[in-house]
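User: I'm designing a mutation panel for Amino acid ABC transporter ATP-binding protein and want to avoid disrupting the core. Could you give me a predicted structure to guide residue selection? Please restate the sequence first so the numbering is unambiguous.

Assistant: Good idea. Sequence first, for numbering, then the predicted structure tokens:
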Amino acid sequence: MAKIEIKNLSKDFVANGIKTVHAVKNASLTVNDGEVVVIIGPSGSGKSTLLRSVNMLETPTSGQIFIDDIEVTDPKTDLRKVREEVGMVFQSFNLFPHLTVLDNITLAPRKVLKMDKASAEKLALELLEKVGLKDKAKSHPNQLSGGQQQRVAIARSLAMNPKAMLFDEPTSALDPEMIKEVLDVMLALAKDGTTMLLVTHEMGFARAAADKVVFMDSGEIIEEGSPEEMFTHP
Ligand code: ADP
Ligand code: ADP
């Protein structure tokens, strides 16, 4: 696992070529090795843009981001490599519908890491066990519930042995009864010492797992502290 360091990050969007939206304004944030940091704040406050900048799904307007000693914002850095090393789980699961659960998980290790089929499948089964879905290896995504699909998506990210994991509202698209099964997997990852940066509205998760909670408003980091500090004072 690794440390994520965001330094003085700003991101402007030009909407319709006219209005400039300052989505993130001079934000600095460190997620130390093995830490869990949760970003909270109102809709449109820049949470997702900040998160997506870490693996350069958004190109920052200014500022720097480091994963350990690699500057991902350096134009010379190979972004494909960064995206291999930083796992990301989205609100929508984005599984390949025509592939089995097992093949969804083995695809990247086989294609990108050149892992042989047997090793990739062994790894996939271990990860499926970890997310409680070993019996679904041969299923297709459309045979699974939303919660199960999201757990497969997490397993698929983990198969690349990422240095850190990003989560962008991973439970927001799920029916209430499925949220807990996904949060339990995320909680287990947190306890395992996975470096995690998340945008989530699940305050119970933040209380239970976060080392730090960061509050954003209008593109700025307004406040940060432990869950106790952030949630107890008036
Ligand atoms: P949050 O995740 O907190 O809801 P976002 O990071 O998604 O906030 O958005 C921050 C601001 O940037 C919002 O005003 C949003 O409308 C704007 N924004 C996000 N993505 C784009 C885009 N691709 N083009 C233009 N504006 C965008
Ligand atoms: P958009 O389609 O608006 O650009 P998406 O959230 O759909 O935004 O994803 C942006 C790109 O990132 C897509 O090409 C997607 O395939 C890619 N992507 C998906 N998963 C990952 C990941 N784990 N790490 C990096 N990039 C990813």
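For picking mutation sites, this is relevant: The CA atoms of residues 28 and 55 lie 16 Å apart. Residues 55, 57, 83, 87-88, 90, 157 surround adenosine-5'-diphosphate (ligand 2) (CB under 6 Å).
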